[in-house]
Amino acid sequence: MSILNKSILITGSSDGIGKSLAIEFSKLGANIILLGRNSTKLDEVYDLLDHSHASQKHLIIEADLALLSNEAAQEILIAISQEFEVLDGIIHNAAILGTMSSLEDYDLSSWDEVMKVNLRAPFILTKTLKVMLESASQPRLIFTSSGVANKGKSFWGAYSVSKFGIKGLAEIFKDELETTTNIKVFNFDPGKTRTNMRASAYPAEDPNTLKSPKELLDCYLWFFDKESSNSPQSYFEFSELSNHLNSND
């Protein structure tokens, strides 16, 4: 499952799953493109990245996905293309929880922000950066799903709706891209994971009962492995994929 020399963009890479993937992928020789809105946190993650592999380099892109436009996405494309010849993968990890309230009481400004970050931004980034993915030998496009994308759940509001949207977006990109390009598209539900977002959604939950973000590493590595190229399936849950990987050990 080598990702040596692969250039991978990870959104929301200043915390949680994105941060963990950035650090662990860098140890395996990947070139990491960190994207987030907090420059201080991005700098801290950058300092934790491994730089020991030959010709390895990393890039920070500071961007507020709630404000992303076509023009801003083009600037991101230019910034990446100035450093890397191709883009081997995009992991759409960034998301915000928004308000936990009934739809009747849901604040419109919060609704709009969640939709912009969780759904609109992945759409804009994907269609803009697709040209760099197409130049890679084995490109991957990975969207992040959630259990609340499969069935509507009270008080999950805009977050749930945005994840329903991501599921549809991933399926459409898969149908369009896998027949015309070499881009492989996946939609992955990491399940219950020890993150700040999870703590906000379930404040009474014991975090020690949850898996750490680092335990997701093998799943994400599999998406970049040649074996995944032959998979007709695009949607995976952590438990399913983890069992598959363990059965192959």
Layout of secondary structure:
Layout (H helix, E strand, L loop, with lengths): L6 E5 L4 H12 L3 E6 L2 H10 L10 E4 L7 H12 L7 E4 L15 H26 L6 E5 L12 H21 L6 E6 L6 H6 L15 H7 L11 E3 H10 L2
Parallel strand pairs: 1-2, 1-4, 2-3, 4-5, 5-6, 6-7
Helix pairs in contact: 3-4, 4-5
Return the average pLDDT rounded to an integer: 95
Poorly predicted regions: none
Shape: globular
Termini, distance in Å? 13 Å
What structural class do the secondary elements suggest? alpha/beta
Q: Total strand count, please? A: 7
Topology order in helix (H) and strand (E) letters? EHEHEHEHEHEHHEH
Reported for the largest beta sheet, the result is: 7 strands, parallel
Helicity level:
40-55%
Major sheet: arrangement of strands: 3-2-1-4-5-6-7
Subunit organisation of the chains? single chain
- Please state roughly what percent of the residues sit in beta strands, choosing from under 5%, 5-15%, 15-25%, 25-35%, 35-45% or over 45%: 5-15%
- Global Rg: 17 Å
Please work out how many helical segments DSSP would assign: 8
Pick out its properties.
single chain, seven-stranded parallel β-sheet, 249 residues, 7 strands
Explain what you see.
The chain has 249 residues and is of the alpha/beta class. Helix content is 42%, strand content 13%. It has 8 helices and 7 strands, in the order E-H-E-H-E-H-E-H-E-H-E-H-H-E-H. It has helices spanning 16-27, 39-48, 70-81, 108-133, 157-177, 196-201, 217-223, 238-247; strands at 7-11, 31-36, 59-62, 89-92, 140-144, 184-189, 235-237. Helix 4 (108-133) links the parallel strand 4 (89-92) and strand 5 (140-144). Helix 4 (108-133) packs parallel to helix 5 (157-177). The radius of gyration is 17 Å and the shape is globular.
